[in-house]
Amino acid sequence: MAGAASALFLLDIKGRVLIWRDYRGDVSAVEAERFFTKLIEKEGDPQSQDPVVYDNGVTYMFVQHSNVYVMTATRQNCNAASLLFFLHRVVDVFKHYFEELEEESLRDNFVVVVKCQCSFGFSNLSIAFFCLGFSFVIKKISNSAELLFPWQYELLDEIMDFGYPQYTEAKILSEFIKTDAYRMEVTQRPPMAVTNAVSWRSEGINYKKNEVFLDVVESVNILVNSNGQIIRSDVVGALKMRTYLSGMPECKLGLNDRVLLEAQGRATKGKAIDLEDIKFHQCVRLARFENDRTISFIPPDGSFDLMTYRLSTQVKPLIWVEAQVERHSKSRIEIMVKARSQFKERSTATNVEIELPVPADATNPNVRTSMGSASYAPEKDALIWKIRSFPGGKEYMLRAEFRLPSITDEEATPERKAPIRVKFEIPYFTVSGIQVRYLKIIEKSGYQALPWVRYITMAGEYELRLI
């Protein structure tokens, strides 16, 4: 990072400072007001959503979560992407402690704001006391106040040091910054993970049964126009892990990656895949992956996303839906829907939900289905067709009839044309064909670990437009 942040602010939705931490002394709380004024001035501007604002020599970077702005300010030339990523990690840390980061949760944990004169050179120091790691201890001695700063345990000073991001793993921070009924408890020294090169994992972890669960989850995004043409399609995948391993294990993961297999001189036979936009968890050794495409890592304890990826290749819709709408005079409307599964018979989609838009003034539905059940959801102006199990290569039908009011408003706004939305899950199936070739766990104690791998495909933004 070329430069460092000067201060970290948490603001409410009106731009008022809830809490802030000054790291370098060159940005004051007044800058937060200037930031919010600048933000208001940009309302209506097409670029108003830019997370970076510059004004009078100060660069502001921010993210909004619920009704709270998390913002950092700097006078130096910083890596904006790095600081924005840091702000998202700060949100995760606060959510870990508060369950949900919002103004009310911050105020619920606010104790008092005081001003005091310090006998060792500080004056007019405003100190915000928070129970979750932001507490400062005040002790009056001889008409003066001595401030005892537990720097090594304060949350804001652990996640950032002199403007440089430090530790943002909530699980590690919670080991030495603990909360109980609005009181902070601290251990005598930070855990080894803070001083260790592996900051995302503590030492001394022990399980009676060592297991690793790996879920390969792919979300299919599809947009089909009214002519049946696929306008947009892609697959977003994630390797989600849950590790319950003792000690400090070394894990190695192999995929059917085309680049790796070709480099090893192996015949791919059409089973290899080309991964795009790969993003790894910080535990993965990137240099090792760049050299020989080996995914090697020491995993965090518990749940985490090891890797995410994207495939932009044309995807055939797994569940195809056709709808015909017939209006009989102005008194009723009839809808006929065909749903067809376009994947192999050995796979089965579960929890299929097809949301069919209907006119806002439709009433008295009469619905018949060849499979599953359908219910009218007037709050969504939709008919919800649910099919618990949808095997591959099958086709099911739905017929529905709705009554319409006999009197219509001639000046009524045109009827909205909402798309058909589909939700589903297909276990033991992936669109991309990604496969885990091996998952090895090596630990110096030599214990045997049980790896479990599961595949699942689900609908992401899956929409088909009506004529």
Automatic annotation (TrEMBL):
GO biological process: intracellular protein transport; vesicle-mediated transport
Domain MHD: 209-465
Record's keyword terms, sorted: Membrane, Protein transport, Transport
Subcellular location: Endomembrane system
The keyword Protein transport belongs to this UniProt entry's keyword annotation: yes
Similarity comment: Belongs to the adaptor complexes medium subunit family.
Record-given protein name: MHD domain-containing protein
